[in-house]
Design brief:
The chain is mainly alpha-helical. The chain contains 14 helices and no strands. Helix 4 crosses helix 10. The radius of gyration is 23 Å and the shape is globular.
């Protein structure tokens, strides 16, 4: 069916309004990061700073160890994404190819587990990590991120595995390839877009996570970037707005850069997981 011109204009207008809605916080954060203190306290704020300055960025780096905290966040997020994908890929293959009652029960549990709030699981996780002596360590935090992101990674990858034609695996079996060889040589390359999308979502989730890091990390040298950002808020709840905006702007850049670089692969992975052959 042809779309009427008026309807098409309405669609583009709605899309533009949605993009503006999404971009507003980031643009306002960017504007605030470059404003001097006098403009930050103005009763008539403006989008574009009249006297842009880099002083907020210098003050942010002088007051808090942002680079060290960013390195901690990077190590935890990368570790969680890699380990979650390595575990989820063979598990998703088994759940997608062997539709037995244990596989269906596992799929149901994956969906139900996403409804659990952070507060419900933090105490058991804290006790387990205490027994393993992993409290206040990046290894323990990474383990928590793996456990938390694994259900979502499984849920995504099961759809991608089901989109791969079974006939390809049957042909590999005829040629003498075993299950492991088939998974590594035949299925895994076709799952590359889906694996990239899953790893990216796991990375971004761990990079932006705050609650677990706040509870499990106590030493200043182990704290991640979202926790360090709270240090720009004083004891009375008054925020040092300029340095906070500058640090928050820098904290959002890695996610944006990774999304921009992997946009096509992510889109292809999402479509592959949504369409059945």
């Amino acid at each position: 069916m042809r779309t009427r011109p008026a309807a098409r204009v309405g669609q583009y207008a709605a899309l533009l309004a949605y993009l503006i809605f999404l971009a507003f916080p980031f643009l306002w954060l960017l504007s605030t990061a470059f404003k001097p203190p006098r403009e930050l306290g103005s009763l008539h704020p403006t989008w574009i700073p009249h006297h842009p300055t880099l002083g907020n960025f210098r003050q942010a780096f002088d007051e808090q160890p942002l680079l060290h905290a960013a390195l901690n966040s990077l190590l935890a997020a990368l570790g969680a994404a890699v380990v979650a994908v390595l575990i989820a890929t063979p598990m998703a293959y088994v759940m997608a190819r062997h539709r037995t009652w244990p596989a269906r029960a596992a799929s149901g549990w994956v969906v139900v587990s996403q409804a659990f709030p952070f507060v419900l699981v933090i105490i058991p996780l804290f006790l387990v990590l205490k027994r393993l002596r992993l409290i206040d360590s990046l290894a323990g935090l990474t383990l928590v991120y793996v456990v938390w992101s694994l259900p979502f990674a499984l849920w995504m990858l099961v759809g991608y595995v089901r989109a791969v034609p079974v006939e390809l695996e049957e042909a590999a079996a005829v040629d003498g390839a075993g299950r492991l060889r088939t998974l590594v040589s035949v299925t895994a390359p076709l799952l590359a877009p889906g694996i990239a999308a899953t790893a990216l979502f796991a990375f971004v989730t761990a990079w932006n996570e705050f609650f677990f890091a706040l509870v499990l990390l106590k030493s200043p040298g182990n704290q991640t970037l979202p926790v360090v950002l709270t240090h720009f808020i004083g004891a009375e709840g008054v925020a040092d707005l300029g340095p906070l905006a500058a640090a928050a702007f820098l904290a959002t850049l890695p996610s944006l850069v990774v999304f921009a670089l992997l946009q096509r692969r992510i889109t292809g992975g999402l479509i592959a997981g949504a369409v059945k052959s």
